[in-house]
Structure formats: C-alpha cells, structure tokens
Write a structure and sequence with these properties.
By secondary structure, the protein is of the alpha/beta class. It folds into three domains: 162 residues, Conserved hypothetical protein from pyrococcus furiosus pfu- 392566-001, ParB domain, CATH 3.90.1530; 58 residues, no CATH class; 65 residues, no CATH class. 55% of the residues lie in helices and 11% in strands. It is built from 15 helices and seven strands. The longest helix has 20 residues. The relative contact order is 0.08. It holds the Pfam family ParB_N. This is ParB/RepB/Spo0J family partition protein. InterPro entries: Chromosome_partition/occlusion (IPR050336), HTH_ParB/Spo0J (IPR041468), ParB/RepB/Spo0J (IPR004437), ParB/Sulfiredoxin_sf (IPR036086), ParB_dimer_C (IPR057240), ParB_N (IPR003115).
Length: 298
C-alpha cells in the first residue's frame, strides 16, 4: 500500500478493503484451521460479554460479512486475518469447519493500518492499544505523525496526544488499561515530570476517587512545590546532606514546601509543613494522618 493511498483518509481506506461483497468481489470458503490471527492486531483485550453475544448472533443469523484475509507470506496454504477478529474468535467457538472470506494481497503496512482503522471505527481500542498501534506505524514503516494521522483519519494533535501516553510510568499505564483512570486523568499526570510522584498521585487518585479536575490541581501543586525548591535561597535549607534528603522526600510526598529546622547537640528540631488554604490543609492532613480531618474529629 502506497502512502498516497494511506493519505486519502479513513473512509477511502475502508472502502478499498472492507466494502460489502459485490459481483466483482469473490467470496470463497476456507477451512477455519487455515486462518491465523493478525500478527499486527493492535487490540489485545476482548470483552467476554461482547464475544458471547456475537457467538449467539452468528449462530442464529449466520455470518453477515465475510472475513478479510491475506495469504500468509511465510506459510503456503495459510492465511492471515486482516479484519474481523471478533467474528473469527466467535466462529472458532462455534466449531465451524470453514468460513466465507475475501482474500486480498496486501503489505504489512496495509495490514497494520487496516487493523487499526477497523478497531478505531468501532471504538474498540483502549487508549494504550491505540497509542501502541500508532507507534508501530512510526517504528515499522518510518511514518511521521502527520502521515499516521492521515492514514487513520485523525488530527495530528490527536495522534500526538495519544503517543504521549506511552511516556507514562508502567504502573499508571496499568491503571489506565484497567479503566481505573481515564484519559483525562492520564493527561493531567503527564504534566508531572517526576515518575515516582506521578505514580503516587495516580494511586491516590484511584483510592480516593479523584476527579480529573482534582488530579490537575494536585499535579499543579507538585509542579509548584518543585519550582519553589529550585528557587528557594540556599540559606533557608540545611547544609546537612542527610537532612536535605529527608526534606526532599517529605516535599515529594506532601507536595508542599516542607522544611526541617534544628539540630544541635540534642538533635531537636522542627518540621514545618505549610498549607495554602482550608482545602490544602485537608489534603496535607490526610496524607500525614492517613485519614480525613473530619473522620478524626468524629
């Protein structure tokens, strides 16, 4: 598939390869065992409920649209699935011996793009699966973000924002994949350049059920705290490297400008934890005490 064809957009791309059978489109039957899954399939998660419903529908009404396959480049008499992953899995559960297909010759590039397009059109890809698919086009075929955007019918900014999700720490990616966090939460966490602190915020957001707006506020507080530490006069900080390391750890944990003062022969001192308003006090108190102030007061 040439890139000028890719650039024609989503509708044209689907029209090239996924239009309903006509007199010019030869539908044939192949043994189910001769078809292997798409090796470039971007979708990894399939709803058990959706599959069960599709199995029932195909059992009752038959297969309304043939599968799209291509000859397997490395194995004679084998075919790789191009489009119709859910239908193929359902047919396997029904123990069919053969299945109607349309066979088309196509490149690896077309195989990946069509798999992406089919899933995107049906809104079946999770955000990370979509991002991985875009990255695969960039890595395998040296496509630019603009070319990827044209190929799948998206704005370049949309593709760029999806690709940014791949920069999230693994723990946050797992929460996003498990639908514990939304895309909005993930975008807010991307603004925290400290991976450890971002992961802490993500876990807290899940545990406390924070809204996207709250995560944005917390992320902003973390950035402000880090900026304050960079601009703080040297005289306001301890010269003891151990004290400074502990101070840094508390600032990261509480997302505010914590100071440790004191020392001397008896080792006495003070930990100062500032807060900006009543809401910020509640946040800091909960982090320190492990419970909301209202819970403690009864």
């Amino acid at each position: 598939m040439k890139k000028d064809r890719l650039g024609r957009g989503l509708g044209a791309l689907l029209g090239d390869y996924m239009e309903p059978p006509s007199q010019e489109t030869e539908v044939q039957r192949l043994p189910v065992g001769s078809i292997v899954p798409n090796p470039l399939q971007p979708r990894q998660e399939f709803s058990e409920t959706e599959l069960s419903e599709l199995v029932d529908s195909i059992r009752e009404n038959g297969l309304l649209q043939p599968l799209l396959v291509r000859p397997d480049p490395g194995r004679p008499e084998r075919y790789q699935l191009v489009a119709g992953e859910r239908r193929f899995r359902s047919i396997q559960r029904l123990d069919w011996t053969d299945v109607p297909v349309v066979v088309r010759e196509m490149s690896d590039e077309a195989l990946l793009v069509l798999a992406l397009v089919e899933n995107l059109q049906r809104e079946q890809l999770g955000p990370l699966e979509e991002a991985d698919g875009y990255q695969a086009l960039i890595d395998r075929f040296e496509m630019t973000q603009e070319e990827v955007a044209r190929a799948v019918g998206k704005d370049r900014s949309t593709v760029a924002n999806m690709l940014r999700l791949l920069r999230l720490p693994p723990s946050i990616r797992k929460m996003l994949q498990a639908n514990q966090l939304s895309m909005g939460h993930a975008r807010a966490l991307l603004s925290v350049d400290d991976a450890v602190r971002a992961a802490d915020l993500a876990r807290e957001a899940v545990a406390r059920g924070w809204s996207v707006r709250e995560v944005e506020r917390q992320a902003k507080a973390v950035r402000a705290a880090r900026s304050s530490r960079r601009s703080a006069p040297a005289g306001h900080r301890s010269s003891d490297p151990l004290v400074r390391a502990l101070e840094e750890a508390l600032r990261e944990r509480l997302a505010t400008r914590v100071s440790i003062r004191g020392g001397g022969s008896k080792g006495k001192g003070v930990i100062e934890v500032p807060f900006h308003d009543a809401e910020d006090f509640e946040r800091v108190f909960a982090l320190i005490a492990g419970a909301e102030a209202s819970e403690v007061l009864g």
